[in-house]
Design a protein that fits this description.
342 residues; alpha/beta; 5-stranded mixed β-sheet; 12 helices
Length: 342
């Protein structure tokens, strides 16, 4: 049984139940110091309701740091809709969830995440929720930001960002992963792709000249750069001790099973770029759309993710790991905001 403090992670955790639609969901609002909690809605299966709540809270905490480091006026939040099989009436399910979001009166602003779409967000908005991503999928900007992070990590580790001949393993080739695989291939990398949908991986590999790897063998595939773009907590301590790569940077949220895994990677001299730094391009685009930025300003803001990665990797010499360096920087931003009057 988890320690009692684990139940109180973040500011607010809401359990949502609607028997008519079959909805079972968790909304976790981690911190609203900088503004309303912004974070995606994940549709996935979980071994237990407690596991769903724990993941929502962990992902919400990462969103607090992501938004803070990106300089955005949002706090962190996340939600998960628990999947138990085929959904007979998807619109009814998303509408029911939207009504629960509406009850929070703007404290939580949902967006797309693994398993959800812009169409789902449109249904939530129609049910009264204030949402992001109802008209534009932010995944191209997420991919662009991860590419900027990967190139910065390559400069840090290899001395330049020339990926010609470098082995790049992309795990998960949905919208973001597929876009990244194409970008790496365009830069001359030897790209390996893996996905639980083997046909999708094979099709992409044929299209871009990559090599498809079975999903169950992906993590044993040697690489120069491992780019996780699938589920959370993919690297635990045992895997970190045998992972054959030099850089870990990807679009997946909450890549490490726990923070101690960052120490294992550091001990093995594997460069780890914290996911909440690398994958911030999507939230930058969301804010840019809401605030009326032009394309040039958005592109510059997404490209700046590379600069933040360089700062974090440099600061890791002081803090021990890039993860601790990024966490401390984010905490300083939130603490400073909490001291402002009003």
């Amino acid at each position: 049984m988890p320690e009692i403090d684990a139940y109180w992670a973040g500011e607010q955790t809401v359990l949502c139940r609607d028997d008519r639609s079959g909805l079972r969901a968790v909304i976790a609002v981690d911190d609203t110091t900088l503004g309303p909690g912004l974070g995606g809605v994940r549709l996935a299966s979980y071994p237990s309701p407690q596991a769903a709540a724990t993941e929502a809270q962990r992902l919400a905490a990462a969103m607090t740091m992501k938004n803070a480091l990106a300089g955005l006026p949002y706090g962190g939040a996340k939600s998960v809709i628990i999947s138990s099989g085929p959904i007979p009436e998807r619109a009814a399910l998303m509408g029911a969830f939207g009504r629960f979001v509406a009850r929070l009166r703007g404290t939580y602003i949902p967006g797309v995440d693994m398993g959800t779409t812009t169409e789902d967000l449109t249904v939530m908005a129609a049910a009264g929720a204030t949402v992001s991503c109802a008209t534009t999928d932010p995944s191209p900007w997420t991919a662009a930001g991860v590419l900027a992070a990967a190139l910065a990590a390559a400069r840090h580790e290899f001395g330049d960002d020339d990926l010609t001949g470098r082995r790049v393993l992309v795990q998960g080739v949905g919208h973001v992963g597929a876009a990244l695989a194409r970008s790496f291939a365009d830069r001359g990398a030897r790209v390996y792709v893996a996905d639980i949908d083997a046909g999708r991986a094979v099709g992409l590999a044929q299209d871009i000249g990559a090599i498809a790897v079975p999903a169950d063998r992906a993590l044993a595939t040697p690489s120069d750069m491992f780019v996780p773009c699938a589920r959370a907590r993919v690297i635990d301590a045992p895997l970190a001790r045998r992972l054959d790569t030099r850089i870990v940077v990807g679009a997946a949220n909450d890549v490490l099973a726990d923070d101690s895994v960052a120490d294992v990677l550091a001990e093995r001299r594997i460069v780890y770029v914290p996911d909440f730094v690398a994958n911030a391009g999507g939230v930058v685009q969301i804010h840019a759309f809401a605030d009326g930025w032009d394309t040039a300003r958005l592109d510059n803001a997404v490209a700046a993710i590379g600069d933040r990665v360089t700062t974090v990797l440099t600061a890791a010499r002081r803090y021990g790991t890039p993860l601790r360096a990024a966490q401390e920087q984010a905490r300083r931003i939130v603490r400073a905001a909490a001291l402002l009057p009003g």
